[in-house]
């Protein structure tokens, strides 16, 4: 069946290689528009299989389009994908890595991950009271006895966080001690992450409502020239969860699954993550204690306040966080330029 939201969705893919993996996704992705962010050497030719509607940006394009603000987009890091979020004009974004393939459910049926994400995003979330049957809006489920009727309408869903079969999303130390671990468990469940609870967001199977939360879905400055890597999606996940909690939006996790085929090198990863393994013990308490003022009524205002508080509270941990906070402000400046009311085609600014 043809997708019903293909005019409202962009698929954002960061890559350093030709995108032959799209052949595996052709039945599910071909009706949609792709935004491809080429990381690394901009002179390298990136080949995209025929039949896909796409636009391709490399580092030269990012520098040309953003000018002095281009320094807020990471180089040689998956965080470059957020440039695709910036230039998109669609309501929904799905982002996926180029080493991820179509998974199958226990019956052997191929999983249309994007369709499931859109189902999650277009149904409410329940962050204020946990339903023990998980997502009550799924077919065959409902609210259980004792669930307050006043909360059953739910709230808008801003983020849909999908999972992965085969190669788990481990940090470097866990990769080193469990090199043969494979995730073979398919859990047929979707749940809303409760208000006040953080989670480790992975960007290789992620969708979100750009109109609700896009301005806060910034992956920071990481990778080349920075003392931190592989925390880009973690940072964006913690920021967006705090903003969603403040604005009254929901975050879902669980289905859909995809097949993650390639484990990255744990020794390379350890070099990138080394500082983060220490700093996360400061970052997570910071986000757990953040209080956003009532005057912050949209994602942009919330994110600027987060940048201010991050500089105050995390700046003393390391000067990197001062630079990160400055980049967060630059990101919002770029976001507001690209999303001024006259330029918006889908939804509100």
TrEMBL record:
<dbReference type="InterPro" id="IPR029044">
    <property type="entry name" value="Nucleotide-diphossugar_trans"/>
</dbReference>
<protein>
    <recommendedName>
        <fullName>UDP-arabinopyranose mutase</fullName>
        <ecNumber>5.4.99.30</ecNumber>
    </recommendedName>
</protein>
<feature type="site" description="Required for activity">
    <location>
        <position position="152"/>
    </location>
</feature>
<dbReference type="GO" id="GO:0005829">
    <property type="term" value="C:cytosol"/>
</dbReference>
<comment type="function">
    <text>Probable UDP-L-arabinose mutase involved in the biosynthesis of cell wall non-cellulosic polysaccharides.</text>
</comment>
<keyword id="KW-0333">Golgi apparatus</keyword>
<dbReference type="InterPro" id="IPR004901">
    <property type="entry name" value="RGP"/>
</dbReference>
<keyword id="KW-0413">Isomerase</keyword>
<keyword id="KW-0325">Glycoprotein</keyword>
<dbReference type="GO" id="GO:0052691">
    <property type="term" value="F:UDP-arabinopyranose mutase activity"/>
</dbReference>
<feature type="glycosylation site" description="N-linked (Glc...) arginine">
    <location>
        <position position="145"/>
    </location>
</feature>
<dbReference type="GO" id="GO:0005794">
    <property type="term" value="C:Golgi apparatus"/>
</dbReference>
<dbReference type="GO" id="GO:0033356">
    <property type="term" value="P:UDP-L-arabinose metabolic process"/>
</dbReference>
<dbReference type="GO" id="GO:0071555">
    <property type="term" value="P:cell wall organization"/>
</dbReference>
<comment type="similarity">
    <text>Belongs to the RGP family.</text>
</comment>
<dbReference type="GO" id="GO:0071669">
    <property type="term" value="P:plant-type cell wall organization or biogenesis"/>
</dbReference>
<feature type="site" description="Required for activity">
    <location>
        <position position="145"/>
    </location>
</feature>
<keyword id="KW-0961">Cell wall biogenesis/degradation</keyword>
<dbReference type="Pfam" id="PF03214">
    <property type="entry name" value="RGP"/>
</dbReference>
<dbReference type="InterPro" id="IPR037595">
    <property type="entry name" value="RGP_fam"/>
</dbReference>
């Amino acid at each position: 069946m043809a997708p019903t939201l293909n005019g409202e969705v962009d698929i954002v893919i960061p890559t350093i290689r030709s995108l032959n993996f799209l052949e595996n996704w052709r039945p599910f992705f071909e009706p949609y528009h792709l935004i491809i962010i080429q990381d690394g050497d901009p002179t390298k030719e990136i080949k995209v299989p025929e039949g896909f509607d796409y636009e391709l940006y490399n580092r030269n394009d990012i520098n040309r389009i953003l000018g002095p603000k281009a320094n807020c987009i990471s180089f040689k890091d998956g965080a470059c994908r957020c440039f695709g979020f910036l230039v998109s004009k669609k309501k929904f974004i799905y982002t996926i890595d180029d080493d991820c393939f179509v998974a199958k459910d226990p019956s052997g049926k191929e999983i249309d991950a994007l369709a499931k994400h859109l189902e999650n995003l277009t149904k409410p979330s329940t962050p204020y009271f946990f339903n023990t049957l998980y997502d009550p809006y799924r077919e065959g489920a409902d609210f259980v006895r004792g669930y307050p009727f006043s909360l059953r309408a739910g709230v808008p869903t801003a983020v849909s966080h999908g999972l992965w079969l085969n190669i788990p999303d481990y940090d470097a130390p866990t990769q080193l001690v469990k090199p043969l671990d494979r995730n073979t468990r398919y859990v047929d469940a979707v749940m809303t992450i409760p208000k006040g609870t953080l989670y480790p967001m992975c960007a290789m199977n992620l969708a979100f409502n750009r109109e609700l939360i896009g301005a806060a879905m910034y992956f920071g400055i990481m990778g080349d020239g920075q003392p931190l890597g592989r925390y880009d999606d973690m940072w964006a996940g913690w920021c967006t969860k705090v903003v969603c909690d403040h604005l009254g939006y929901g975050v879902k996790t669980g289905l859909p699954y995809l097949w993650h085929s390639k484990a990255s090198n744990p020794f390379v990863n350890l070099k990138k993550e080394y500082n983060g393994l220490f700093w996360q013990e400061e970052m997570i308490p910071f986000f757990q204690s953040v209080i956003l003022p009532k005057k912050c009524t949209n994602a942009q205002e919330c994110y600027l306040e987060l940048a201010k508080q991050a500089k105050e509270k995390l700046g003393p941990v390391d000067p990197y966080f001062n630079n990160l906070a400055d980049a967060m402000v630059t990101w919002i400046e770029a976001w507001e330029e690209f999303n001024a009311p006259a330029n918006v085609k889908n939804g509100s600014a």
